[in-house]
Structure formats: structure tokens, C-alpha cells
Design goal:
single chain, about 325 residues, Rossmann fold
């Protein structure tokens, strides 16, 4: 089912780039206390979870599992805002840091990519064993949304009763081209610089040896980073091979969990040609907004009191879906 979104951007944030960047500025002082839990993985590595509270002390509260975007973390404004909104509803949020994103390099050369579901499967199984009788939902922002599409397609018996894929690059090849054009090059440089920094750390630790420091420094495009680093270290033949094998667009039809897919047509990170190729499914609700930027969706009439549509819409969807799915 496809829906036209009810989102209306704030009059002072109608431009897609303002929508994309404003959240970071507006929420720079947002504070959220979290509890860190380190989970050792079967392959000898680790991931860190950030909880809004100790779930053992709140036996009946629903739990929402959160996946952040490329090089994101609990400190990303969109993640922190969503976690705070989940807590305000009286629920518990837990964010899984992708490997290397919690402030510590992971122990192996490979870290994570847009289709890497290994840690999601493991952590979800870990949660399921501990909280089998809870209401559970899962959401993913941007890259995390694409990872989520892959995970949901792979697990036909997921414990989650509802999910949300938010501003995800569901067709990776076209999205990697889009982010290298126009003003979007600014976002590309920001992301590529972060990826290069984390890769350089691994080179210096001796965890990566297939690319040298000079070749790494010369990378400017996200597609070139994926060609030189992401693809070879994770066993893909090339960036194109990587994009084709893990793009969420090709996984959506396999999903059997009620899922909201939220997308803005002015998102400067994404190409929008894939919208016409979204598969129909009774499990999928597509909400397409003309505006919103990349994980922006900021509304409200007062610049001092903005509203954050993503949090309201997604959590309302979970609340509406849970009784039907249980």
C-alpha cells in the first residue's frame, strides 16, 4: 500500500538541505542517559548496545531495536531523538552499534556494510531469548534501513511485530551516484572522510592490508571507497556486485513483518527512480513525502519548538500495529 504523507515541513525549513542539516543543530544539546552493554559475537568480535534503561527492571515494557545510519552512533541526532521519543512513550529503546561505530575499532578487518545482517541476527536472537514475551519492534535509519530490509527478508520468523525502514538507500548503485552530484557532494565528503579515518585506524592496527595509506587518502567518492575497501574486504567482486547483492529494493517482496517504509522525494542522499519499482505487499506500507530531506522531517510553526514527524509517525505505526500482530 502506498500513502501520500501528511508531513508538512516547517515554514522556515522548506529546503531539503535545511531539513537534512537542521536536526543536528537543533538537537546539539539533547541529552540522553544510556546504559552500555557489550555483546561478544561468535566470530571473536563484539558489538555494543545502548539501552535507555535496564530492561530487567521493567518486565512488561515494549522494546524497540534501533539501527543507525552510515558511521552513525547513539550520538547521531536522529538516533538520540528517536531513542528519547521511545523512552517518553514509556517503552525501552536499544540501539545496536555497527562494528567500529561505538568509539572503539572492532577486532577484525571487516566491520559492517549495507547488507551485513550477521550482528543483527545474533543480537535479535540474544534479545529473543531474554525477552520472549515482550512486544517488540525494530527500525532502521538510512544504511540501517537497508540492513533491516535484508534482515527481515532473511528471517521469515522474526520476533518483531512491527518494523520501519526510514530514508533508506534501497537501490545502492543509483544512490551512490546521486550523492556525488551537486550540493550532495558535501554530504559525500563528510561520510567518506569518516570512513577513511576509521579505515586508517585499522591499517595502523594491522587489521587491513589490502590497501595502503596513500591509496586510501586519494579516495574522494563513496563509490570508489566501496570499490577499494568495502567490496574486497567483505568478499564482493566489486562495488557494483556489492550494490546488486544487498540493495534492499530486491529484498522487500520477501518481508513478512508489517513494515512502514518512509521516504522523502527531496532526500539529497537518495535517488528516487526506484519508487516505481517498489513491490506491492500486504506487509508493506509505503509513505512517500514530497519533502523531508534525509532523516529530517522537521515541522512546526515555532522555530523554538520544532516537531519531529519521523518519531511521531513511526511510533504511532508501531502502537497501531502491535495489537493486530500479537
Amino acid at each position: 500500500m502506498k500513502l501520500d504523507s501528511n508531513f508538512k515541513p516547517a515554514w522556515w525549513l522548506r529546503n531539503c538541505h535545511l531539513q537534512t542539516m537542521a536536526g543536528k543543530l537543533l538537537r546539539k544539546n539533547l541529552h540522553l542517559d544510556t546504559i552500555t552493554e557489550t555483546v561478544e559475537t561468535p566470530d571473536g568480535d563484539f558489538v555494543e548496545l545502548a539501552w535507555t534503561e535496564d530492561p530487567a527492571h521493567s518486565a512488561q515494557k515494549p522494546i524497540v531495536f534501533v539501527l543507525h545510519g552510515l558511521e552513525g552512533s547513539i550520538d547521531s541526532h536522529y538516533a538520540k531523538g528517536m531513542m528519547a521519543a521511545i523512552k517518553q512513550r514509556g517503552w525501552i529503546a536499544v540501539l545496536m552499534h555497527f562494528r567500529g561505530c561505538s568509539g572503539k575499532p572492532n577486532r577484525h578487518g571487516p566491520s559492517y556494510h549495507s547488507g551485513d545482517t550477521y550482528d543483527v541476527h545474533y543480537c535479535v536472537h540474544y534479545l529473543q531469548q531474554r525477552f520472549a514475551n515482550r512486544q517488540l519492534a525494530i527500525l532502521g535509519f538510512s544504511l540501517g534501513g537497508n540492513v533491516l530490509a535484508n534482515y527481515l527478508a532473511q528471517d521469515q520468523h522474526t520476533p518483531f511485530q512491527a518494523s520501519a525502514i526510514i530514508c533508506a538507500p534501497l537501490h545502492l548503485h543509483s544512490c551512490s551516484t546521486r550523492i556525488s552530484q551537486g550540493f550532495s557532494k558535501v554530504y559525500q565528503k563528510y561520510l567518506v572522510d569518516m570512513l577513511k579515518a576509521s579505515t586508517l585506524t585499522k591499517i595502523e592496527l594491522g587489521l587491513i592490508n589490502h590497501i595502503d595509506k596513500e591509496a586510501l587518502r586519494n579516495i574522494r567518492l563513496l563509490a570508489d571507497f566501496d570499490e577499494s575497501v568495502t567490496a574486497p574486504i567483505h568478499g564482493f567482486d566489486s562495488a557494483i556486485d556489492y550494490y546488486e547483492k544487498v540493495s534492499g529494493l530486491y529484498q522487500l517482496a520477501q518481508i513478512r513483518t508489517p513494515t512502514l517504509v518512509l521516504h522523502a522525494l527531496d532526500d539529497p542522499f537518495l535517488c528516487h527512480q526506484f519508487i516505481d519499482k517498489l513491490p506491492e505487499s500486504r506487509y508493506l506500507t509505503y509513505e512517500i513525502s514530497k519533502r523531508g530531506g534525509h532523516v529530517g522531517f522537521i515541522g512546526g510553526h515555532n522555530p523554538l519548538k520544532p516537531s519531529y514527524y519521523i518519531e511521531q509517525r513511526v511510533l504511532d505505526y508501531f502502537e497501531q500495529t502491535w495489537p493486530q500482530a500479537l
